[in-house]
Amino acid sequence: MTQTFKFGFIGLVLFYVYSPIFVLMVNSVNGSRYGNKWQGFTFKWYEKLFENDALMQAAWHSLVVGITSATAATVIGTLAAVALQRYRFYGKGAVSSLVFVSMLTPDIVMAIALLILFVTLGIELGYISLLIAHITFCLPFVIISVFSRLKGLDMSVTEAARDLGANEWQVFSKIILPMILPAVASGWLLSFTLSIDDVIVSAFVTGPGYEILPLKVYSMVRVGVSPEVNAISTLLFVGSVVLIVISQLLLRYKRK
Amino acid sequence: MTEYQPLLQLSGVSKTFADNTVLDALDLTIYDGEFLTLLGPSGCGKTTVLRIIAGFEQEDCGSVMLDQQNLAVLKAELRPVNTVFQSYALFPHMTVYENIAFGLKMHKVAKADIKTRVDEALRMVRLDSFAQRKPHQLSGGQQQRVAIARAVVNRPRLLLLDESLSALDYKLRQEMQIELKRLQRQLNITFVYVTHDQEEALSMSDRIVVLNKGKVQQIGTPREIYENPANLFVARFIGEINQFDGHVVRRIDEQHVEVVAEGADWVVKTDHPFVADDKVHVLLRPEDIRLTKSELVLDSVHVEGHIYECSYKGKTLDSYIRLASGTKVIASEFFDEDDPDFDYRLEQKVALQWTTGWEVVLPYEYAN
Ligand SMILES: Nc1ncnc2c1ncn2[C@@H]1O[C@H](COP(=O)(O)OP(=O)(O)O)[C@@H](O)[C@H]1O
Ligand SMILES: [Mg+2]
Q1: ipTM, 2 decimals?
Q2: What is the 3-state secondary structure (H, E, C) of A143-173?
Q3: Ligand 1 geometric centre to CA of B43 (Å)
Q4: How far is CA A147 from the centre of its chain?
């Protein structure tokens, strides 16, 4: 009895969470344009998607922003996490808390703040402003990911390395980095996913000259939900799931 | 000892963490080629001494000189000193070979030489066939040997070993003690070994430094430390010892005084300039005490007591005796199978005897 209840309840939760996505995925291969009834399996919406140059252009932009911002955030975030772990300095506690706070800042607040910043500094809205904004909101995630990995390590190995003649840079590149690499990679994947998925911050800080995928999809939906939107959303969903699964596997692998 | 030259000199080294004084004006000279052991209870500052020598901790005051060079100006990575860490601290992402080669790579030794020296080090610690393993695929004893090989392959002037054997089980520890001694002789590197295990210290060291509360209690060969402890702390820390409190009655000659303790007159041998009425501790090792049935003892200095516990130790029989004053004494005698009287019965009255000169006489300290 309790068993059926337990599984029934969990089933209900999963149904609640995944049914919209399921409907979306089904409709992306549904022959019917309006998706109210099943009219046979088709890939034609996906084909149309790849013929849509504006959409492909936006997807390319998203990829570029995603890769560059994830990479920059990973480099900066990793160094920051190592500094937080290794060095004692004044205000270290405050810095750690601020990292957490920035992660919890509402997107809309960050979006407006960044927009004001760019306008004040006279930075043109486009690739550069997007890049800076995405690095900003990805950074805390990288720092947290790398920092928690560092905390779990036996740091006497860094002393052993110095004892054997390694300087600060060699300790970092030959000892610390290889040991935290899974967390660094996982931080990169997470950043990339956040960047590709972001709508709110991007909507504020990009210009008309540089369209990215989520915003393009958003503008298409305003005209009405088309099967192409179902198709692109399905692709985005599958892509995100794959990346997140990889990043979780990396985090688990490192614990051995 | 005289053939050795001073290698490292700590002078007046103090270290305080917050308001916890860990080292208190420590003076210590380490000679080239010796096996020196820092022995003391846990928390007495042994690791801190090693960390200061290695350069991971900065002394508050005092100086550390290696070969007349002040180490204060030298960063840890530049000191000709290597450490075998208490936790081994092997690099988990590298193979055994890469671990051992690490120091040589950092010092930019030529590739071909690295291979020769690492192979040699692997043979030395008998791990030739484990070169390609990762540390987590090795047993504790093997990891320990990798840690030693990784340090000695750099041919340091000074090798620091922090409780390196304490994580191993008894049998392996014994083997590794012999192994370490062999290595030290073979390599002719100065070893500074830290332990809280007095047996280990006695069996391996050329000299022992007994530390307590950040102060040197005594420096000497294992024999000096065991046979002539400088104070009560050393006497009690190194092996079992029986303590009798008494006072000097009179001086007999240059080397002997008469002491009253446990209600008896004792003639004891001492170099200390005791005078009448000085309070003293007379200390006797359990193995220096002979027990006889008390009715057989007619003359000579002896004390009487009752056996209240016996414990068979294989090689020896340990008897626990309570004296009339309540003082408890342990006597440890070699087992003699042919002696029918050897098995003392519980509650039997016995006489304790020893050879004059085997006792240690110390000025009275308040501690008991
Ligand atoms: N980095 C540190 N910060 C604060 N206290 C320390 C530090 N290192 C050691 N101590 C303290 O110094 C004392 C001696 O430590 P240690 O040298 O490790 O002793 P041992 O190796 O003899 O057990 C201990 O009380 C320990 O708590
Ligand atoms: Mg210690």
Answers
A1: 0.82
A2: HHHHHHHHHCCCCHHHHHHHHCCCCHHHHHH
A3: 6
A4: 18
